[in-house]
Write a structure and sequence with these properties.
elongated, Pectate Lyase C-like, ten-stranded parallel β-sheet, Jelly Rolls, mainly beta, disordered N terminus, 20-stranded parallel β-sheet, 1 helix
Length: 570
């Protein structure tokens, strides 16, 4: 690519040499305007296939420079000793690179000060375009304007490489990109008044051996897309908020870096994206990772074991210690010493452990429970040895218990059953509030609750009539109507299909964990004038959120009659 960092050797052969207007032409200078030299180079046929340098002598140039065709590079040189930054060529204005296709640009040894806009602006598109900046400073003092801005209209760009450069903005981020751009910063310094770097569209950024800071924002912030990428290696970044914010998604790779984050959340990496990291030093207030992050991979050396196919395969990670009396290490794999039984013989047949697991299951009337190193085998219920009647107690004799009936009852025994029936003198018809009579069938009367009413019996002479039954739940399930749920964890409660008119469902989120209410197949949920899609959801947003629903058959809709908190319909 044209435009090396040390271009002073090009003065003798350059055709386009720019000097300040104050010094005029002569002494090799044939232009007093950078833009005029660029325009002439293009007119002379220079471009992507025939690159050329525009050499700029030391001085201050107050102008905006636009380069539309690639192959035109700007190189600052000086006959005098360089200043502390190594730069003597100052441009007070904006360098605009307009991408039209397969273009190459190079900027070297320039100090560009954006007054009314960014110091460097890249627009247009071309996915094979390459741009390099070497030993340059880009600074902007314009309101809401980054030091370097990539706003490519087509959404595509190639590779932008910054080496030994400084990017600053006194009122915005140091670097902004909304293109499909790979921006690489090698041994650079980036300082933003807000964010350090902001990525939009599908932009990517890599920071290598660089230093950066965000005075009132994030180190790197992802906007509006889930496929942005950030990589940071051997760099130091300080930010008042998180170092990387992946709220919409994306991915980040962070290796061998030092971070200082002042994020009030306590998370130095935030969002829902995926993260790969290794060897990080956190010196700020925020030293934790956001639990909302997706896949988190710890690279290189990490303190956990990883499964491999067999000893000797080379899959060894982490550090672990084991009792040498019980275990041995073979090629990084831990193996138990001594024989471990894998076959267990029973009264009938034998069982073989599978995956180091042996199931001990109970048969009819038998239950097994495990705790610690103990398996307990017990009957599923107590075996009765005495039986209480209305008066007195009966005790089996010789494993036999006689069941006798009194007035109006008869008993018939057959096989394992004893049938007790009425002799017909007990009333079988019951008058209700309405005109319809209720009749017992085979001596049985059903007491059924109506809407919002449940009935339960205790096995004796008591019937309990209740309204909505409330239950603490920590596991997602499908629920029938006329129930109440206290959600004690992040769960999804699915409303049962085939619900009848007027059935109710009641929910309270007792923790900050998300409670999702899922409509049944073909059903919707309505809160006020807002309604979900068919089979949609209502999601809580905070602890204490409550929702009371009543089902309307005609519209297949769960109508909210009481709402506490903010619920999100989807």
């Amino acid at each position: 690519m044209p435009g090396p960092s040390n271009a002073s050797n090009r003065l003798g052969s350059a055709s386009y040499i720019v000097g300040t207007p104050a010094n005029g032409l002569g002494n090799g200078v044939n232009f007093t305007s950078i833009q005029a030299a660029v325009n002439q180079a293009v007119a002379d046929g220079f471009g992507p296939a025939n690159p050329v340098d525009v050499v700029i002598r030391a001085g201050v140039y107050t102008e905006d420079v636009t380069i539309t065709d690639g192959g035109i590079s700007l190189v600052g040189v000086s006959d005098a000793p360089p200043n502390l930054l190594g730069q003597q060529t100052f441009i007070d204005g904006t360098i605009s690179l307009v991408i039209t296709g397969i273009n190459q640009f190079a900027l070297s040894n320039l100090f560009v000060r954006g007054v009314l806009g960014p110091a460097l602006s890249v627009t247009g598109g071309g996915n094979t375009c390459k741009m390099s900046a070497d030993n340059c400073t880009f600074s902007s003092s314009a309101a809401a304007t980054p030091g370097v801005s990539f706003t490519n209209a087509s959404g595509t760009f190639g590779l932008a490489t910054f080496t030994n450069c400084s990017l600053t903005s006194s009122l915005a981020e140091a670097h902004f990109s909304s293109a499909r751009t790979i921006s690489v910063f090698f041994s650079c310094n980036l300082r933003g008044a807000t964010n350090m770097v902001t990525l939009d569209g599908t932009a990517r950024v890599q920071l290598l051996y660089s230093v950066g800071s965000a005075n009132a924002g994030f180190g790197v912030q992802f906007l509006n897309a889930a496929n942005q990428v950030a990589a940071c290696r051997f760099s130091t970044i300080a930010a008042t908020d998180s170092i990387v914010d992946m709220t919409p998604g994306g991915s980040s790779t962070l290796e061998h870096c030092t971070f200082s984050s002042g994020a009030l959340s306590g998370f130095f990496i935030t969002g829902t994206g995926n993260l790969v990291y290794t060897d990080l030093v956190n010196t700020g207030l925020a030293i934790d990772l956001d639990p909302a992050l997706g896949v988190i991979t710890v690279g290189d050396w990490k303190p956990y074991a990883e499964a491999g196919a067999a000893p000797g395969t080379g899959v060894v990670k982490g550090t672990a210690c084991f009792d040498s009396a019980q275990f041995t290490a073979v090629d990084g794999f831990i193996q138990a010493t001594g024989a471990i039984p894998i076959t267990f013989t029973e009264d009938t047949g034998s069982a073989t452990a599978s995956g180091a697991n042996l199931n001990i299951l109970g048969g009819t009337g038998i239950a097994t429970t495990g705790a610690g190193s103990t398996v307990t085998v017990a009957l599923t219920g107590a075996v009765a040895t005495s039986y209480n009647g209305d008066t007195g107690t009966a005790i089996p004799a010789g494993n036999n218990l006689q069941i006798l009936t009194g007035s109006h009852l008869t008993s018939t025994a057959s096989g394992s059953q004893v049938l007790i029936t009425l002799d017909g003198s007990v009333p079988t018809d019951w008058q209700m509030d309405g005109a319809t009579m209720a009749q017992s069938v085979a001596g049985l009367m059903h007491l059924v609750g109506g809407q919002g009413i449940t009935t339960t019996g205790n096995g004796s002479n008591t019937i309990t009539i209740d309204g909505v039954a409330w239950t603490d739940r920590a596991v997602s399930t499908v629920i029938a109507g006329d129930v109440g749920t206290f959600a004690t964890a992040a769960i999804t409660m699915t409303l049962q299909a085939g619900t009848s008119q007027g059935e109710t469902a009641n929910f309270v989120a007792t923790t900050a964990a998300v409670l999702v209410v899922q409509a049944g197949i073909g059903q919707k949920i309505r809160i006020g004038n807002q309604v979900s899609s068919s089979g949609g959801t209502a999601t809580s947003t905070d602890v204490g959120d409550a929702l009371n629903l009543t089902f309307q058959v005609a519209t297949l809709t769960w109508q909210a009659n009481s709402v506490i908190g903010n619920w999100t319909l989807a």
